[in-house]
Amino acid sequence: MSIITLPQLIDPHVHFRTPGLDHKEDWQTGSKAALAGGFTTVLDMPNTKPPTTTAELLEQKRKIAQKDAMVNYGFHFAASTDNWNEIKKVRDKIASVKVFLNFSTGNLKIDDDRILEKIFSVSPIISCHAEGEMVELAIKLTKKCGNKLYLCHISTKDEIEYIKKNKTKDIFVEVTPHHLFLKNENIKDGFWEMYPNLKSQSNVDALWQAIEDGTVDTIGSDHAPHTKKEKQQDDFPRGIPGLESSLPLMLDAVNNGMLKLERLIELMSTNPTKIFHIPIREDCRTIVDMTLKKEVKNENLYTKCGWSPFDGWQLTGWPIKTIINGETVFDNNSINNNFRGEEIYN
Ligand code: DOR
Ligand code: ZN
Ligand code: ZN
Prior knowledge:
This protein has 346 residues and is of the alpha/beta class. The chain is 33% helix and 21% strand.
């Protein structure tokens, strides 16, 4: 069968940039990228300007999404060095509390162990940007504090090995398509740079192995758009867009025998619903054509940034319809601009 219906597809890791960084992406362009990429649901990251560190700022973001979101959505909330009271106010109405243990876009890195322990102990689930030894710290903190931990964009063999030894039922692992399909030899310029950066083939192989053996729980695109102009500067920001290439890359991998379709559904639908308490909705579905062969082309993208490191890649297996809350919102490249999505946690 070449036409297949998939259950609601969730991208648990997108940066829609509103407020403050709307020149890179906004809820309308980000939603369209999600729809064209076959996603019914996205979870938005808090490193906006200002970052989402208070209940009031979350409320402001909510208003913007209510007006503009054309997919279903939820929000991750940002931890800062002193906002645990704000975390307590919002913790039932968010996907997770995001903690940066390494430097990344937005200056939200926290490195005081006592503060980290406090944040972990008031947050039912933490999403962590942790690389290398910081993965070990995150796991130690979560075991001590008894909460859940979602490790974003794991990218190395060493991290995978440590996680495999120390994983519990409350620890979850995300990998991105770019760490699965690109490697450091491919890096040409700023358009190929993100945090964590691209790794060597042996690390890429370890990620695929971890997909096969069940260590990996989700695929998150880490859709992190920056403009072409910003990327061409000497001091370019890190991050690449991913919403429109994530599913086609994974479907192409299914066609190439690199993973089974059932595993793709676990990684992109079933597991994110369980980890982030997203209600299962039968009226959210994506129709894919497993035999459709198409090229990723910068000029066809809906993301505001208008480029992708996968430009020119021929992929087989593409979403043709995205159905949300019973409505066909994306249909063979036409988008119903009047549709508005719903917030999951409010
Ligand atoms: O490359 C990245 N870009 N990594 C991150 O952790 C943040 C992201 C962004 O917001 O641009
Ligand atoms: Zn990150
Ligand atoms: Zn991110």
